[in-house]
Model the fold of this input.
Amino acid sequence: GENVEQHPSTLSVQEGDSAVIKCTYSDSASNYFPWYKQELGKRPQLIIDIRSNVGEKKDQRIAVTLNKTAKHFSLHITETQPEDSAVYFCAAAASGAGSYQLTFGKGTKLSVIP
Amino acid sequence: EPEVTQTPSHQVTQMGQEVILRCVPISNHLYFYWYRQILGQKVEFLVSFYNNEISEKSEIFDDQFSVERPDGSNFTLKIRSTKLEDSAMYFCASSPSNRNEKLFFGSGTQLSVL
Done:
């Protein structure tokens, strides 16, 4: 089955700096890669996702890049703000290939220091 | 914005007891899921449900677990005889169309088995 590794487990940045979180996956059939943000005590919320037919996707201060050859994808947050502090999870799925599940990474706790 | 709702938010039970966790998915969504998150660990897939039947389940989802959609709105997870290791946050999720994309998560039920 799919295995998703996520690094780092914790990340502290100064407000205004950029943050990068990296994930690798093992199943070459995976073609859908979402990122979820989970604030303390709250539900995971989808912040951005990318499919394997594109290499990069951007939404305001958030961008995701995907390298299918190397089987890794990354989340980039620019101009970080204190409200970006949360746990971020990457995930991978073989969408449309008979699978219904997302496989998550272990999460990265991002702390943005004012 | 529509949300997935879960009840109760916290459930404490004695080992060996049955528990039922309840979820109301977003009304026009077609795919329903249960995930769990043991404290400090990754979010793990339990089961997916589509067209009134289980479409996929993980190794965690053994004979002690069952799901049901008793009416047009509720989606439940039953654990027949709880074990200590079942203690976790249980998240219900739903998605509108594609099997494992654009999942919307509920706020979770924290299950504590004593």
Summary: The interface with chain B takes residues 32, 34, 36, 42-46, 49, 89, 91, 93, 95-96, 99-107 of chain A (CB under 8 Å). Residues 83 and 112 of chain A are 8 Å apart (CA to CA).
